[in-house]
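Handout, page 2. Input:
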Amino acid sequence: MKRIFTTFFALFVVCSLFAQVEIVKSTEKVNINGKIYYVHKVQPKQTIYSLCKAYDLGSEELIAANPSLADGLKAGAILYIPSNEKPLVETQSSKDEDFEEEEDDVIVQNNEIKHIVKWYENIFILAAKYNVSVDDIAAYNKLHSKLLKIGQEILIPNVNLVQASDISTEEDLEEDVEEVEEEPVIIDPTTAAHQIQLLSAVPHFSAVNPLKVSLLLSLNSQSQNPSANYYDLYSGALMAIEEMKELGLSVNLKVIDVTNQSIFQNISSDVSILGSDIVIGPAEVAKLTDVAATCRSKSIPFVSLMDQKAEPLVEDNPFFFQMPTTQAKQLENWINTINSNEAITLIYNEDNSEKELVNSIKELLSQKGISTHDVKYNILEGRTIIDSMKTRFKTTTGNTVIIASEVEAFTSDAVRNLWLLKLGGYPMNVYCSNKVRNFETIDEETLYAVNAKFSTQYFVDYGSDETKDFILKYRAMFHAEPSSYSFHGYDSFKFFLSAFKDLGSEGFMDYIPFYKMNLMQTDVQFEKVSETGGYINIETRDVTFRDDLTIDIK
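Output:
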């Protein structure tokens, strides 16, 4: 009796383990590169096993079509499940029969398909579903943007209709372009986030069709003294590539040493470069211009990695991405961190050597409605200025001070004076240039004492688990310590590879302004400078030295 009970209990457990939530097979299908896929939204408690059983396919085939499954199956995810069904023959009668079986939001009439956009659809999904190009759909519907709205009526053309339609003449196309320029479309961030989620559920690259990346650096590889900095950058980039490969992204990387001028001159005609999905580098502005122009002519995104002097190139190149945040934007972000209902003390050198910086700070403060009390002095009288400062400060409340200088000698003197006032009982919150980190004449303990605050584009939190893990992996791979160039190479590649993985080549340019990442050393979000211009990174990090010897990073 005991054996029978044990056997029954074991069978009960096994049956319970394999019990699955009933899966309703999706009726939604798409045609991707000539292959039919079911569009399935994952429901709670559904598993890879139950999905494979419902759709009659193997788990390997399901995962191959949906690389995101490597991170596990999540409720709400959109999966593309391969079907054995063959694409319909391109005859009108077969199309009519097919779409009559679909829901009421798809109607075939007058040799065109009327489709009502559903919550999970975008223009790329419709193009794949009906086996037409995105440009054909946009032109046929005279769309000003590739962004679609839920419930929007979209007409899907027959290829022959597109050629014979009344929008196929050059004159009409020119009118459409003018109309787009007159009525720029503003994409709603919430809708953009939804579209990005949909795009990220679709595999855009594979081993057969990898993401093609070209990296141009002055490695000086043929010399006895190769560039240590650029090799560090390259090493960081390789770390990011390996990480993205683990997430299912196939990458084909081409690295060119552009130190040799003759090699550099042939880049503009290099077939492999012209076939890239994205070109990154070179770092020096002197070598950027021609390559950037070539990429623009071929509609290839081009990334300026490091040189802020390349900023003018972004003005008239819609495919140009300036990774360094401009000085003006860094200053604006810095001032925006200041919250004060009282007047701020502004300290600067009276010799007017930094007049432009002082005026810029005053203007930005004025725009925020903040007034200032000015303290200007010559560094030679730095030892006697403290008594004058005391008349402006309070011992009962915090005193907000801005040191409007990037000169080491003056900044060092000002910080020392403010530290002495802090010791005398005057609470301090001091805003200063991020260059103070590199000033050898300033004791770091002094920065903690005065609660120094600054904004910077590059700052690594060495106390974070992510940074510690990166350093260990870097040491294991390269037997060296990562430098700031290593972090920059990693961050730059991690951002752009992630963006292409999630957005694909077609969605990259449309949704990149809404794609933000907080990375190891840098935060990244690109802003378009104008309708005809490219993009500049607008993110910085706010760093505060606290008097308890901790650092706050936001």
